[in-house]
Amino acid sequence: MATPTKISAVEEITADFKESTAAVLTEYRGLTVAQLKQLRRSLGQETKYAVVKNTLTGIAAKEAGIEAFEGQLAGPTAIAFIKGDAVAAAKSLTDFAKDNKQLIIKTGVFEGKALDAAGVAALAALESREFQLARVAGVLQAPASAAVRTIEALRAKLEENGGATEAPAEVEAPAAEAATEEA
Description:
Elements: H1 4-19, E1 22-27, H2 33-43, E2 47-52, H3 54-64, E3 77-82, H4 86-99, E4 104-110, E5 113-116, H5 117-125, H6 129-160, H7 169-182
Antiparallel strand pairs: 1-3, 1-4, 2-3, 4-5
Helix pairs in contact: 1-3, 4-5
């Protein structure tokens, strides 16, 4: 029988699924409270790492339209609901799992697509969103920087030549030859 507490728990988990860009299902058997606290801290403020009840999570996942967790909800389960940078959170989870063998990454969902444990590891191997944006900014800035350097070199050359604005004789000669050939 559904109690008001269980109904509100399902609603909360469903809302977490819907508000998250990614979610990673883990098994935390054997981790201490201090280790879980350390993991939560490493995930950052935009990721909620919650210990959940398997039955209620199964219901909430179905309500949210997530099928990736079917058959995976067994044992002590916790989910990382990621609202920010999914790559950074996945890196934190996989790094923590490398150092703490008790944490098992089971499956995940990223932007509505199911991921297995290897998919979560692949997500963690990507560059962070900030790094990718910085790289794009660098690519966009490069032509402007080159133009500034070229203009500055021309200005320095003009100052070196005493501000002469005449074209060098070499440039005028071919133009004069072309004019005589046309006539």
